[in-house]
Amino acid sequence: MELLILTPGFPQNEEDTTCIPYLQDFVLGLQQYYPDLHIKIITFQYPFQRGHYTWHGIPVFSAGGANRKGLFRWLTWRRVKRQAAQWINKETVVHSFWLTEAAEVAADIARKNRLKHIATIMGQDALLTNAYLQRIPFGELQVVAPNEKAAGYFHIHTARDVAAIIPHAIAPIPFVVSERDIDVLFVGSFIELKQPFLFVEVAASLSARWPHLHAEMMGDGLLLQEVTAAIQEQSLPITLHGKTDRKAVHAAMLRTKVLVHTSRYEGHSTVISEALACGCRVVCFAVGHAAHPHIEEVADIAEMIAAVENALSAPSLSSGYYPEAQQEALQAYMHLYRG
Question: Which helix (H) or strand (E) holds 185?
Fold first, then answer.
């Protein structure tokens, strides 16, 4: 079977571990468990350089869109379609990620060549703010949601049901018993959606009652300088690491008691799944994630601070947890591909 994946972005090389971790795990999982599946990948915007390369032995074509609009976007889409025409055959299944340009272009490719098309909801693309929801010709397209929450948003905004709910399951992370010397950890982009200032607020409140609090933040983004200034102004015990590769994030999680996830929306939070796999307790808002006894969902900042205090007072976890099994999730996708 041939599988053609279309995505807005993909790692530029095998060391680029921070680019869409779930998609990396997904592709490598398919490669591991279904070696007879021939995978090819086309990425629209990132890497910014146009050209062919291989990633873990998988052919990848970058259209090099670099997030440019207007005529440049049209040229990017034309490059994608030309490359797809070279790679597809009558047995190809097209799988697009995000209900955005990848899904729209993939739908056109699938329709013209009478191919099966699967599209996976990844985040805010299920919300009404996504203009592509009005443009994508859903027709025979089979949409997959990572959880009931995302499926519900999709139904509200399109009056359509998803074909399946398949969680964004991650690959197993080696668990090593470590000293839990990091009290609270933030992992994510420093952007408005992720609300990093709320983590600073939580740490400030906790440090007044926990004088030896050890807090760390990992990530980069437009708000990094402002967050840094806020930490310095209040002399808070928060260590900033900037952009951090995935192995280093996992190493930090294995030393962490509580992941404080301040994002206001997630299609399905990979970082929550990773934290559970590393034996962290998790405190978060009502974002997309699996139900689990070690996840405390809160409604506001006051509840978040209280929940983190309770989690810090609880015994450290001695093993990792996987609410979603990757092999089962991959089997569910293979069922769609073959169906």
Answer: strand 182-187
Q: What is the rounded distance in angstroms from the CA atom of residue 316 to the CA atom of residue 60?
A: 42
Residue 197 — very low, low, confident or very high, per pLDDT cuts 50/70/90? very high
Tokens 């930090």 appear where? 252
Residue 43, SS3 per DSSP: strand
Burial label for 303, CB within 10 Å (0-12, 13-18, 19+), is middle
Q: Is 236 exposed, middle or buried (0-12, 13-18, 19+ CB in 10 A)?
A: middle
Beta bridge partners of 4: 40, 94
Q: How far apart are CA 272 and CA 48, in angstroms?
A: 29
The percentage of residues in the chain with a pLDDT greater than 90, rounded to a whole number, is 93
Reported as a single tens digit per residue, the pLDDT across 282-293 is 999 999 887 899
Tell me the pairing of strands 51-55 and 58-62.
antiparallel
CA distances from 176 to 282, 314, 320, 337 (A): 18, 20, 9, 36
Torsion of CA 72, 74, 80, 85, to 10 degrees: -140
Q: Looking at the domain covering 2-166+326-338, what would its CATH class be?
A: alpha beta
70: left (phi over 0), alpha (psi -120 to 50) or beta: left
Write out the two tokens for 175: 């668990």
Identify which of 262, 273, 271, 258 has the alpha carbon closest to the alpha carbon of residue 320: 273
Q: What are the boundaries of each domain within the chain?
A: 2-166+326-338, 182-313
pLDDT tens for each residue of 99-108: 999 999 999 9
CATH fold of the domain at 182-313: Rossmann fold (3.40.50)
Q: What is the pTM of this model?
A: 0.94
182 band by pLDDT with thresholds 50, 70 and 90: very high
